[in-house]
Amino acid sequence: MRHTISVIVENKPGVLQRVAGLFSRRGFNIESLAVGTTEKPDISRMTIVVAGDDQTLEQITKQLYKQIDVLKVFDLPADESVERELVLIKVKANEKKRGEVAKVAEMFDARIVDVAEESVIVEISAEKEKIDDIQKLLEKFGILELVRTGKIALEKGGKG
Amino acid sequence: MELTGAQALIESLKKEGVKHIFGYPGGTVLPIYDVLFGEKDIKHILTRHEQGAAHAADGYARTTGKVGVCIATSGPGATNLTTGIATAFMDSIPLVAITGQVGTPLLGRDSFQEADVTGITQPITKHNYLVKKAEDIPRVIKEAFHIASTGRPGPVVIDIAKDAQNIKLKYKYPEKVNLPGYKPTLKGHPRQIKAAAKMISMAKRPVIYAGGGVISSGASEELLAFAEKLNIPVTTTMMGLGAFPEDHKLALMMLGMHGTAYANYAVQECDLLIAIGARFDDRVTGHLPSFAPKAKHIQIDIDPAEIGKNVRIDVPIVGDVKQTLKDLNSKIPEKEGRHLAWLKQVDEWKKKYPLSYKKNDLLKPQFVVEMIDELTKGDAIITTEVGQNQMWAAQYYKYRKPRTWASSGGLGTMGYGFPAAIGAQFGNPDKLVFDIAGDGSIQMNIQELTTAVIHKLPIKIIVLNNCFLGMVRQWQELLYDKRYSATNLCNNPDLCKVAEAFGAAAMRVTKPEDVKKALNDSLKITDRPVLIDFVVHKEENVFPFVPPGQAINEMIID
Lengths: 160, 558
Prior knowledge:
The complex is a heterodimer. Chain A has 4 helices and 9 strands; from the N terminus they run E-H-E-E-H-E-E-H-E-E-H-E-E. Chain A is α+β, with helices and mostly antiparallel strands. Chain A folds into 2 domains: 2-75, 2-Layer Sandwich (Alpha-Beta Plaits), CATH 3.30.70.260; 81-155, ACT-like. Chain A, domain 2 (Alpha-Beta Plaits, 2-Layer Sandwich). Chain A starts with a strand and ends in a 5-residue tail after the last strand. By secondary structure, chain B is of the alpha/beta class. Chain B folds into 3 domains: 2-170, Thiamin diphosphate (ThDP)-binding fold, Pyr/PP domains (Rossmann fold, 3-Layer(aba) Sandwich); 190-352, Rossmann fold; 365-535, Thiamin diphosphate (ThDP)-binding fold, Pyr/PP domains (Rossmann fold), CATH 3.40.50.970. Helices cover 36% and strands 17% of the residues of chain B. In chain B, the strands form 4 sheets. Chain B has a 6-stranded parallel beta sheet with strand order 3-2-4-5-7-6, with helices on both faces. In chain B, strands 11-10-9-12-13-14 form a 6-stranded parallel beta sheet, sandwiched between helices. In chain B, strands 16-15-17-18-20-19 form a 6-stranded parallel beta sheet, sandwiched between helices. The radius of gyration of chain B is 24 Å and the shape is globular. Classes of the chains: A alpha+beta, B alpha/beta. The interface between A and B is medium-sized, with 20 and 19 residues.
């Protein structure tokens, strides 16, 4: 089962290495990892997508808490949080095909952010499923390059 | 008060009550060693290898309960410490290891003797620091000692850039630490304690399985009270030796791969296993799904990550062992004559399957250990190397008090015992300290004889010399068709001559009847270490033996 966990850490040198090292050392698989600062500049938030059963998730959470620089760890259930991923897709598109690509982008609320002679770059910020869908549709034009940020997520309402 | 970083470091160590530092100088710790020159309150002990310094600090910590401190220079000095740091990490021993680092302008440039010490030690420390600013030194020392010694103890590395040691700072030692991400749970949840008390009162065949956590939390008295109140037999892990008096009628001695048969049978038959400061290590459990198959499990541990890591736990209690046992003891009413049928069964196993070895004319290593026990009545400190020597030392010496045993349990580090004995002797100047060693492992840190000789430490080095890497040979005998690949040490040097060349006393014993006299003679030598080379039966095996991957009641008894 796939889990999205938020790890609130002190923004100190080595903390990313500690967390990443912990995952590889204990054999936990990271599907994606996104790190950035929060509303407080000395605090960072890591959003980590991991695969594993409940017992694995529990062990991951406990091992994360053992790190001195880790302040808080929580699981973000998909239905109680807003999840986003930013993706840039460079699609093969000459003058003739450009319009078609633009149409697909429009359907997905994606934007064309760069136009070159033989290609365009499509930017989309969405949930995983939507990104998978647009990727599938754009494949028929030919995807030249693609980059994903990894998922970030925030729980709805209140303040966790 | 204005001090240099190095001065601030030493002042801070004094504030933490440090009396001994084990170390080895080098380029990037010169400012620190300059402060140590002429220092009165802290004694620096120069070992002959940084690994020796780390193990000595560890042996000091295990036998005193204080934080052990070691120091080394950057690069190879620091990497030489790592085996000692990993040893302490696996066994949850409080250690502060200070390493010099190249100056900040040289960092990250592959400079001379530069190594990424915080990177290298990250998986083998409870926490580590790279200090680039002098003003951070007092806070980091305060935090390091706090982290190393509280919660589940462990080693902390402080890597200090050379320029930070020279720069001046306004020195003030912080009174408190501010670590929002580090707050160990000390008091067990009352609901869990109540649930545990209820489960215990229902049990018909309970067993206590006590580990190193009992020793690190200083809970031996509480454990004894708990076991006696309820009449529950107690087995200890190797790390827990000394947590419960082995001459007590409820003692089952050690369990697991080389545990007593009766401890293993009791665990396999029990209906309630109470794990106290123990972590269900593979050397304890054998084949995990078959471990304690009839039992409900209660686990008391200060580290939440240990709960349910290997075995499903019915009633977990996260908390300090001492505090939790106190709370539990107050919840459980005393009742005479509990578990009599169960104890009778356990006693039958004890009678039927005692620890034993074949006694004949040969000099048996087990006999040597028994004689040490007889001579010291359990009052000595025993350190060990790793392998057969370690297991015989664990089996045939009766540990009666905590902190009388120092052995590398988790990492299994050969070469640990002798430097650890040096640390133990510095921490316990009035105690008898024995290192029970093999002929293989003693050679791994034999250079520390110099350290022991210079400081006139009367450590007894007991070499159980079988001209083999004995434990590996035993596995080869039993599991690899006696193909003794790379385990024959017939080209050993004359260890007595080696010891004498270092300035130690030495004796050789080849017959069982001479063991007692040699040990007695060694006790009379009080101004230097003594190495006794016991030329023991070469192919003696450690039994019981649970072959790897088997259930612990499927052991080879002899």
